[in-house]
Amino acid sequence: MKKIILALIFAYIFVAAPAQQGEMRCRLGFSYEFSSNNHWGKDKPVIMKVYPNSPAEVAGIRQNDIIEKINSLKVADITMDDVDSLLTASEDSHILLTVHNFSNSEREVPLTKECYSNLSLNENQLAAAFSMYSVEDTHDRLFFCPFVTTTTEDAIDFSQFKTFDFSLVEEDKSTLRIETVLNEVLKTELTKKGLSVNALNPDMMIHTYYTFDRNPNFRKKSKATEEQPPVFRYDITRDKVTKFPFYSPSTPESEAEYVLQLGIRFIDQRIMPGRVLWECEANELMSASYSLEEYASIHIPLMCMQFPYVKYNRNVQFILTKKAYNYTGINYNIYRINEVVSIDPGSPAAEAGIRPHDIIERIDGKRMDYTAPEFTAAYRQFITNTLKLRDSETRFTDANGFVGRMFWDSFKYSQIAKAFAKDNNLTAFSYLYAFQPFVNPERSTSCTFDIRRDGERLSVVVRPVFHSEKTIELN
User: Fold this and answer.
1) Residue 438 to residue 415: CA distance in whole angstroms
2) How many angstroms separate the CA atoms of 217 and 215, rounded?
3) Among 76, 78, 108, 449, which residue's Cβ finds the most Cβ atoms within 10 Å?
4) Given this model, what pLDDT does residue 119 score?
């Protein structure tokens, strides 16, 4: 799906072509591409991403699943356009996929599309539209890893390989400790993909190799190397983006104080014993010492994202997508933003008694009687006026190319909260991030919606549910 630049999402929504009353938009909750890979799903759709809290995730669809059939039609017998039409047809709310992966040669997965009125705007979309209210919670971030990934030139289907085991570890205690860590991480990642350990007769043998030491060829750093921007990557062990002591891959090796190499080989034991099926190698140039075990724990999951479906042969690009927000279940009218179009069944707003066609006059005392362009203009002005309250040390370029993404300065939370409280900033939708102290210093767990219904004014207290989503995908 084509990405819309986040800072313009809100404006974009309201300049799109008018939706027809009663029309619906639906989603299954995954993206896919047609494979040209001889080892996985050749000429068939392969699932590239499964969206959090979507029908696909609930049904158990997984990344790298190969779609074999749609509503019992074999994808090999229809065109790419037919596949697109069958998956996106708005008149069909139910669909039956037959998928293929390591665990199953074929598995039928019934899916029910999640459908909304074309007139509605949900809180997931609003969280993205107002992401600068809390970049800490909602952003897309691009990062690179210097991996080189190669596969056998033989046209062999990797799904034939179901089991694995590890090469014998060395007797040396320090090496045994390192390989134990590497093998445990690999075991976790491969079992997630549906493979299993078989020590007696494995289909694949996994071999790891590694080195880490001071660089014997180090001479002197140039000014350009000393002034390189820091390298940030996602640290799965800490669940956050972290700064690492790595240099750019283009740095001359003689200017790096330390070097690290980590490689993984999957070796055929089933069809042609000894043949290397898949290999991924990381080579890092480093400015400081770093634990090989820690490197492996963070980077092996990223390396394994290219098995069995390889997209990049070198310098792999990843996107971390993070979104956390307060969910009430209210869906707003795109063209009359303070009108409720619908309420998600069983949601906090439904339980509190908010109904479709209610007019929201205020949220936590903040007025809602403005047009969408007025909200958009005020949001942009808010971003400009509060730049001085952000921490410049956290500046990063997001996955859409915006260079000025920054977190709030933790020493200025009281000033930030005052900016959110100003009436002329039109920050009613900051309730989406009211769990943060820079939005809501009292950290209250409820929101008050002042509504108008058939001429009657009501005050309704809603207790939102915290929704959190995070995905890492190949770009």
Assistant:
1) 8
2) 5
3) 449
4) 86
Q: Is the dihedral of CA 222, 226, 227, 231 positive or negative?
A: positive
pTM: 0.85
The whole-angstrom separation of Cα 201 and Cα 198 is 6
Is 113:27 a contact under the CB 8 Å cutoff?
yes
pLDDT at 337: 94
Which pair of structure tokens corresponds to residue 379?
């949001």
28-37 burial, b if ≥16 CB within 10 A, otherwise e? Answer: bbbebeebeb
**pLDDT the model gives residue 169:** 64
8 touches 125 (CB < 8 A) = no
Beta strands 447-453 and 240-244, pairing class: unpaired
d(CA 399, CA 138): 12
3-state helix/strand/coil string of the chain: CCCCCHHHHHHHHHHCCCCCCCCEEEECCEEEEEECCCCCCECCEEEEEECCCCHHHHHCCCCCCEEEEECCEEHHHCCHHHHHHHHHCCCCCEEEEEEECCCCCCEEEEEECEEEECCEECHHHHHHHCHHHCCCCCEEEEEEEEEEEEECCCCCCHHHCCEEEECCCCCCHHHHHHHHHHHHHHHHHHHHCCCEECCCCCCEEEEEEEEEEECCCCCCCCHHHHCCCCEEEEECCCCEEEEECECCCCCCHHHCCEEEEEEEEEEECCCCCCCEEEEEEEEEEECCCCCHHHHHHHHHHHHHHHCCCCCCCEEEEEEEEEEEEEECCEEEECCCCCEEEEECCCCHHHHHCCCCCCEEEEECCEECCCCHHHHHHHHHHHHHHCHHHECHHHCECECCCCCCECCECHHHHHHHHHHHHCHHHCCHHHHHHCCCCCCCCCCCCCEEEEEEECCEEEEEEECCEEEEEEEEEEC
Residues of the chain with pLDDT under 50: 1-21
pLDDT at residue 173 in the model: 67
- Amino acid 137: pLDDT: 95
**Distances from the Cα of 431 to the Cαs of 12, 343, 413, in angstroms?**
22, 17, 16
Tell the residue number behind the tokens 């991924």, with chain if given.
280
Residue 161 sits at φ, ψ, to 5 deg, of -95, 115
Tell me the β-bridge partners of 145: 316
